[in-house]
From TrEMBL:
Keywords: 4Fe-4S, Iron, Iron-sulfur, Metal-binding, S-adenosyl-L-methionine. SMART domains: Elp3. It comes from mine drainage metagenome. Its cofactor is [4Fe-4S] cluster. Coiled coil: none annotated. The keyword Metal-binding applies. This is Radical SAM core domain-containing protein. Residues 1-24 are annotated as: Disordered. The keyword Iron-sulfur applies. GO terms for molecular function: 4 iron, 4 sulfur cluster binding; catalytic activity; metal ion binding. GO terms for biological process: tRNA wobble base 5-methoxycarbonylmethyl-2-thiouridinylation. GO terms for cellular component: cytoplasm. NCBIfam families: archaeosine biosynthesis radical SAM protein RaSEA.
Amino acid sequence: MTPATSSFAHRVAEERRPAPGSPADARHYVKLWQEPESLDGERVRAFVLILRTRGCYWADVKGCTMCGYARDTLGRSATEEEIGLQLARALTSYRDEPYVKIYTSGSFLDRREVPEAARSRVAAAFAGRARRLLVETLPEFVSPEALRELRDSFGGTLEVALGLESTQPRVLAKAVHKHETPTQYLEAADRVRRGGASPKAYLLLKPPYLTERESIEDTVASVARASSHFDTLSVNPVHLQGGTVVEHLFRRGLYRPPWLWSLVEVLSRASRLRAPGTRLVSFPTSGGNPRGVHNCLRCDPEVLSRIQESSLAQDFSLLDGLPDCPCRETWRHSLALEALSPEA
């Protein structure tokens, strides 16, 4: 990465940093919804809650190229009482969904975002009601003490998600702007397992500065390398979020979100390379939208439906019979042209 590119990334980080939130802001969670999921082979509904906290500390330093979640944060640490008020509001919409996912636009295990007492309070709220609780964190916050605290408060299966994105160091550092190495993520996943929890990885499809073909190969290789360390691998195609490096590149005609055909290719190939018992899933955000993973938009609903069904059923042969839309040939041609480019 050139000094100019690095300066550009820092400038974007400054633009998206929120002003300190008011006490009124801190009483309201960011968003909640229900979504289809699979739990122990059973189709279920998952309850998803995004709490409003100070957000990811790395976003204040530099931030990842595709992440705009800093805009949903307080710009300061939330108190235990404020987290409790958000939780109480959210629980009025909870209908005993067996799978609960809690996000903070950062790291749930970072005490600067969620105080330790508030973490236990959140986990205990779903004890005896949900069977699985998922939280997300950066690898440096995974400790035996934090895992034990959550397991004891919840009582069910604890799942810890890590934004690995790629197992290639250069991609992680230069294209995603992560400050940790892939090895640190893999070691954190191993600590999660030793702590009696289930590790999950998010893998990014098409970070900036990679061609479509390069991004396919990177994600497939990442599945192969990471699958023995994680119980679940989730392939997340980039979608455009406001105030990010990716959006700036998009507005200048320098970036296109990935093709759905690329996601189909990744899932079809990677499903044969994963370790036995490892779940591979993809539930794209903004799929079928010009700002998210998409094809020609005409075939997108059918392709997205097959991707979701194959993820829930863990049967990726469902992708083999997709109708061959004319845009698939356009996608193939674009990959072939990339291979001929001297910059590819």
